[in-house]
Amino acid sequence: MTDPKTHSLIEDAQGLAFGATMAAFGILVLTHLGLVTGQTAGLAVLISYATGWGFGPVFFAINIPFYLLGWWRMGWAFTVKTFVAVAALSGLTMVMPGWVSFATLNPVFGAVLFGFLSGAALLALFRHGASLGGIGIVALMLQDRLGWRAGWVQLGFDALLFAAALALRDLPTVALSFLGALVVNLVIAINHRRDRYIAT
């Protein structure tokens, strides 16, 4: 008999595929508009803008040190799923620009759209026992250990990252970017509640 509190392999695969694809589409929207974001993805975006290196390889490389932390505190299953999600996102961001283009994309709407896409992506990954690595692993650890909501932890990290972003982007662009990051973190803070929803 299947335990109703656990996901099957097929369900996990679908959740990881959905999360990675929606996150990659969110990054496509973000970088099309020249915006930045928070968390590990935001750091990768800033490095990409500053160096001209592709987001995908930078994002994949940045996450490598966090896998040991994830393995130690969250277990092997979480770490393997996170590795798969990060690798899928990295690969998709390299090929997706050839699949999707925008003739018109309002920057305000684009920032909010990025936030909704990324928030939904992270929720799917969290509920299937994965994350997109980096600060997401730390945020989930703090939520599980101390009860701090993952969204609020990530928002604090984002504030520091956006301060650094002012060195590469003008204030209106950073303000729009912060709107997108705020939407991401509000989606997570409101919806990723272990006292209301059971995540396995």
UniProtKB/TrEMBL annotation:
Regions that span the bilayer: 15-35, 41-70, 82-102, 108-126, 146-168, 174-191
| Assigned keywords, A-Z | Cell membrane, Membrane, Transmembrane, Transmembrane helix
Subcellular compartments = Cell membrane
Membrane topology summary = Multi-pass membrane protein
Q: Coiled-coil region(s) at which residues?
A: none
Q: Give one Pfam family, short name only.
A: YitT_membrane
Highest taxon of source: Bacteria
PANTHER family, from UniProt?
A: UPF0750 MEMBRANE PROTEIN YITT (PTHR33545:SF5), UPF0750 MEMBRANE PROTEIN YITT-RELATED (PTHR33545)
Protein's name in the database:
YitT family protein
Task: Please give the organism.
Answer: Gemmobacter denitrificans
